[in-house]
Amino acid sequence: MKQLITLGIFCIGIQFGHAQGYAPYESGMKVKINEDGSKYLRIISWHQIWLKYNQNNEGSSLAGKPIDETWDLSIRRSRLLTYAQLGNRFLILTHFGINNQTAFSGGVSSANGKKPQLFMHDAYVDYVVFKDYLNVGAGLHYWNGISRSTNASTLNFLGQDAPIFNWYNIDKTDQFGRYLGVFAKGKIKKLDYRLAVNDPFQANETKTIATDVSDYNPYAQSWSTAGYLNYQFFDQESNLLPYMVGTYLGSKKVMNLGFGFDHRKDGMWHRTTAGDTVYQDQVLLGADFFLDLPLSKKYNDAVTVYASYSNYNFGKNYVRSIGIANSAEGGGALRGNAVPTIGTGSIYYLQAGYLLPKFSEKLRLQTYASISHSRFEGLKNSADKLVPVNTIDAGVNLLMAGHHSKITLNYRARPDFTNIEKVDYKNEVTLQFMVYL
Q1: CATH number of the domain that 337 lies in?
Q2: Which pTM does this prediction carry?
């Protein structure tokens, strides 16, 4: 009985442990169920708090009054995740929490940020069929296609956050990056794979259909198929859980090359000028490269590089603008800090970081920068010329206990597409406070 209630720290070599650059935490808080720790319950909790200054896009307002800039405090993420292995062949995972609560939005009422909805992020079961080679599972899961960043852990980003376009159907046909479906995952030597067949959520419930501009087909009954394969040249990464690490802080030597896809038949629709309804498949493809490399044993410095190419087909002229933890209204889809993020076309993304030489037993500094270059066919000016979307981020992480306790200062130069004939750039500065246990 004592073993059933004892909380201990037992390292099992998974990605949440010392591989993230802070050995004292090992694999965190676990409930040991048997003597050797092979049966356990793992508990993880984290908060990401943002203090943000934002120059709002033109036309933004608050309570009907124009507002040029805002200061706000938000809960970007507040989560609790548990998983348990009660035998060598069975795993159960439950993950819930909230996202994007500000004093203005994210709550039960769209008019304020109070009482945000607590909801499931993951709820799935996992069975070992052939150890290491094949696991199968089902439920609300995060074993996604397309890219490494589509499967990103939110605990160990190199930058402040993900680029968001990586979650291509976010809160449309998925549930915050998760799908109801059946998945398979495993390793064949150095090739790591994940495949899934999903039953997408209904999107576009209002049945909106526009002329020559695609939207989600609300009548689609087809399931989607998705997959991501990555070849791991050096150290092998754990695939016990779906969440892929953003930076190992020099504790692993990793170089991966990956390819992925997601396809749904008749997932999109639009109307022609003649009034005919056209159904189009949603076809999404991606390729990426990830490098996390220790440089010097003397200085304990390291470099991280992530590059990706995404080719998205959501149907004719589809473009979606997204603003994270947005604290403004008015201006339509481009209010506050919203920017064209997802659409039919191509997205090029490059991110690089450098972990500075060790200067303290407790503190580390890591600098980073990223740029995304998107070319969406639905963004053309009056001269019928495509206008690209370029977003630049740069910042520094102050790591007080690896990723377990860190402060991130991020600067963003964001294009304001309110007037596509004259795209202006706005400044956005965010200070993030993060702790996870």
Answers
A1: 2.40.160.10
A2: 0.94
